[in-house]
């Protein structure tokens, strides 16, 4: 994934004031608005400029972006630092619908699709409820099967006397419910921004994401894994053990199976009403011929199947 230089997108220095960022955004948005600019890349540039302003126009997100972007330049390969996904919380709304479709993978990786509070949202000291906050919590897939209690460290934005954004840290104990799905939001009542003048605090919404792992893939509540089998297991059939996040299950590989065949285990996906299914996708793995005896075995196999051409399917 490529690191996006939002400062370059708006044509401003990293030291630019919020007012300079706003003026640059307005100037660039007019220049590349698709209704006014008929260049082939105008619409893409217009979206890029809008995304840059969603970050740099919001002091909270700008501070977080600056924090993680100190070591990167535009176009460099970007890998979020460990713990980033669950590391920051922000005030404001969530992007959805058309907004979400316009956001890049880079933005969604950093901010989880969360929107910006936007300039001008600071409150006076009159009685007013606190704003809701949003953050992301990254869990293991096994937590969705069993439920879990996790300690979550968050950095949340505060403003100093000069109006600059600073981050403070806090720890929360979070109950992960059994059957939670990726993208689901968990509501922690009263854990958002404190209210003023005795008004209640806002809530904290945690967007759930699954930690990436090579073995399993998730589609809704269904869980997939690639199951390696030996050629003789595929040809003759075999009983094999299939692991899944809550344990393992024994399965029968039917004789004559090929790569890509799916074995379905009803109800062994992520719990729910109804639960998802587990799918084992067969992958035939050829053993290496590392010894003379193994090479002889392959030669004998080749003689036995002398008329077999696996590439004959190309002629169809």
Describe the structure in brief.
By secondary structure, the chain is an alpha+beta fold. It has two domains: 6-119 and 127-210, Helix Hairpins; 216-315, HSP40/DNAj peptide-binding domain.
Number of helices: 9
Number of domains: 2
Query: What is the strand arrangement across the widest sheet?
Result: 1-2-6-5
Query: What share of residues are in beta strands?
Result: 25-35%
In CATH terms, the superfamily of the largest domain is: DnaJ domain
CATH class category name of the largest domain? Mainly Alpha
Which regions are unreliable across 5 or more consecutive residues at pLDDT < 50? 114-124
The separation of the N and C termini measures 39 Å
Largest sheet: 4 strands, mixed
Mean pLDDT: 85
**Mind telling me the C-alpha Rg?**
26 Å
How helix-rich are the residues, as a percent range? 25-40%
The secondary structure category is alpha+beta
Task: Provide the CATH architecture of the largest domain.
Answer: Orthogonal Bundle
Order of helices and strands: HHHHEHHEHEEEEEEHEEEEH
Shape by Cα distribution: extended
In the CATH hierarchy, the third-tier topology of the largest domain is known as: Helix Hairpins
**Number of extended strands:** 12
